[in-house]
Amino acid sequence: MKRLLLCLFCFATASAFAQADKKLTAQLQEAVNDFGGQVGIYVQNLKTGKTAAINADTLFPTASMIKVSILAGTMDKIEKGELQYNQKLVYRDSLLYPGEDILGSFKNGDTIQLSKVTMLMITMSDNTASLWLQKLVGGEYINNWLDQNGFKALRVNSRTVGRESFRKQFGWGVSSPYEMARLFTMIHNGQAVSEAASERMYRTLVRIYWDSGALSQIPPYVQAASKQGSVDDAKSETVLVNAPHGDYVFSVMTKNIKDRRWTEDNETHLLIQKISALLWHYYEPKSAWKPAPGIAKYMKNE
Predict the structure, then answer these.
(1) What does the pLDDT look like over 114-125, one tens digit per residue?
(2) Residue span of the signal peptide, if any (predicted)?
(3) Which terminal CB of the chain, N or C, has fewer other CB atoms within 10 Å?
(4) Which pLDDT tens digit goes with each residue over 150-205?
């Protein structure tokens, strides 16, 4: 409890004294001026504490980004001894979430370690894996963990008692850009569940398969933890970059988007790339890096 209170106090103190980066905020505002939809952005330089925000406290659908909170809830159960990180789980056909997920190709009765299910949930954004873990942990349990750690907006809605109206409005999960960035920062700082659990989560979050958005605008030799979330009318991404001159975190969230195509050239995907590139070159002004010519052909959907 003392650790939690200290964590919340330190975060609240840092937020209270955070200085707005007006120059960066202006650049971000210019980047989103003509966007066809609603957008929210929160950025913080973790070295200087300076922030930039546009609609950072507005609620948006998380889509698959909610899986980071499911991961935190899972690790909390492991920390308490109610689950084991490498315990074997038995897959059942009833767990299947129709789609192209890896876990959904398993046969009834196949076994898999819980640690591999968490990897599939985050790295591949496997929906069957995610819903399995949410069922094991419980949506109410995850939301209680979020509440106890000071989150006011970030919540699981789907398959969670009392969240039906929020599910109709926001889908699987809901958050503000600020709180998504805060969850990543807690994990980065070793303050989510425990230092050891945070380290385990961070190692998983830096192994993302879906790297054609924000990650494509960050050099491949620079480590970044991230999670993406997409549905027809809302596409978002949160990233924490271990940059040479200081780590920074940002969350770009959208809703009510007009361009709902599931292609690499849809407006929101390009906006997220644009914001990521802007931030990289803002914080690393001497970096001459840019995606290699021809890299786009490796990022197209089949």
Answers:
(1) 999 999 999 999
(2) 1-20
(3) C
(4) 999 999 999 999 999 999 999 999 999 999 999 999 999 999 999 999 999 999 99
pLDDT digit string (tens) for 5-61?
A: 444 444 444 444 479 999 999 999 999 999 999 999 999 999 999 999 999 999 999
Mean pLDDT of 290-298: 83
Whether pTM exceeds 0.90 = yes
Closest CA to 295 of 227, 239, 219: 219
